[in-house]
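### Sample
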Amino acid sequence: MFKVDQPSNSLQPLQETTFTNAGFTERYHLQEWLAKHPQALTRNSDDELLIIQKEFAGFDDTKERLDLLAIDKDGNLVIIENKLDDSGRDVVWQALKYAGYCANLRKEHIVEIFQRYLDQNEPEETRPAADVLAEFLEHDSLEEVQINQNRSQRIMMVAANFRKEATNTALWLMQFNIRVQCFKVTPYRYGNDVFIDIKQVIPTPEAESYMIGMAQKEAEEQSTTGESKARHHLRKAFWTQALEKFRVSSCSLYNNISPSTDHWLSAGSGISGVSYNLIFSKKEIRVELWIAKPSAQTNTFAFDWLHERKSAIENRFGHEIVWQALPDKKSCRITYRKPINGIADQEKWPEMVDWLVEHMTAFEKAFSTCLPELNQLIKRTFNGHDEAEIITEEAEHV
């Protein structure tokens, strides 16, 4: 690894070192880094992780402690086992034991575990753990979410070096559809600065994409529960009704959109990564502008620019809008909502559809005068500095 020295237009080599020589420990350094920034172990927002406990010791009849316990966007528990300069002989066995222990955790147990974590580590978070989990999993509540299903547990092992017995066993486990990942973490020195390089070595990113795709295909082919089928049927019927009404309205955003089984419908705003969303959930319907470009820096820039024009936008819209910067997420949301009592009462659907058409029409008009200017401003501000570079800089800063 090299550092670019711009004055001399040359590469300056970084000196590879060890965690021990650098004075870092497993528990107070490596573990804390990953707890505060678990996305160092992921490649994109679709594979985002939420840490729900560290030093987890809630296993019956044992005093063993799992380094980090996380959950992914699909509701799968993720066991993260860290080692320093050497993976050790027993790292795979430890991880498998913890995965076996965690396989028995029910939804209510996971909520309790996460609540303790929030109380101890994030006292500024005032929302209940169940609400934080539901938002992370992109649902309105945990009632309709399946968490920690059979054989869905994932294993992540992090070390500076992996012994052959560890890598061979990891590769063997993958043949049984157990999702195992090995991350090699290498520290480098340059003067007084220390840099950390994190690479996924097993499986390679290309191989993992193929494996995940095959697993998703298999999951899609399996039958869903009756409750899920009913909910999906209701959503598709509602969106069919809503889209028919939109097509005869003055709002053309959704003219080329098809009905969905999801609780949202998205339409482009003219800015890549920024969409107009309709939401139909058990608790509310809402219209929103969702700012979800790949870079958190760009999203914050766009949100702040729009928020400076808050009064003018709300005057054009005719209502007070909820502005959510969502500092714990990369994306930002600007929304207007109406509470409802469930989605099953089809007699109330026409009223809900009329509300969505009326307010999305006004919502688009309120923002339409701003977004072209914002789009050009984003292009000028980040010209020659693409979002991949911004994301890399954000990760290095963390």
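The longest strand covers residues 180-190. This sample (DUF4268 domain-containing protein) is used throughout the tutorial notebook.
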